[in-house]
Amino acid sequence: MPQPDAPPKPSVAAPVAAPKNGPVKMDVGTLRIPEPEATTEYLVGTRDSCPMLNVTLAGVSFPRVSGGSVTTDPERRGTRVHLTPKEVDACKAAAAVRIVRRIGTDTKFRGEMVDIRTPGFRAKPGDEWLAKHVYMQPVSVEVRKILDTEPEAMA
Length: 155
Known about the structure:
The chain is of the alpha+beta class and 155 residues long. The protein has one domain (36-148). It is built from two helices and ten strands; from the N terminus they run E-E-E-E-E-E-H-E-E-E-E-H. Strand 2 (54-57) and strand 3 (60-63) form a beta hairpin. The longest helix is centred in the middle third of the chain and has 11 residues, at 85-95. It starts with 39 loop residues before the first strand and ends in a 7-residue tail after the last helix.
């Protein structure tokens, strides 16, 4: 019986031999930088109720605080990020499949983030949706102006 034709393999650029001495070079003339997408600025982070200080959803870090003694910025709640509508949807989708599980006693526990799609996942008493413990709020234009410019002097 004849075999059906195999689908064509995608074309791959021929490998370039690495130089024996010196840096690896690229031909950037053939690369295109994509057009920037419209973004909205959000304040994101974990609430005090979250047993983890930092959560990552769809590649976006949601910290309890940012800035502080390591940087010249003052410590502040959460962090400001610029996100496209697609990235916001990806964060929402990631939060929709994750729960927070407290492990230990009421006074001494650690938090665990669990993906409900994990094979063998079983809900336990006390499980809560991660979405109850993180926030994502758009930063208004007025607040951005206050935070991004030097304040006007009192005199």
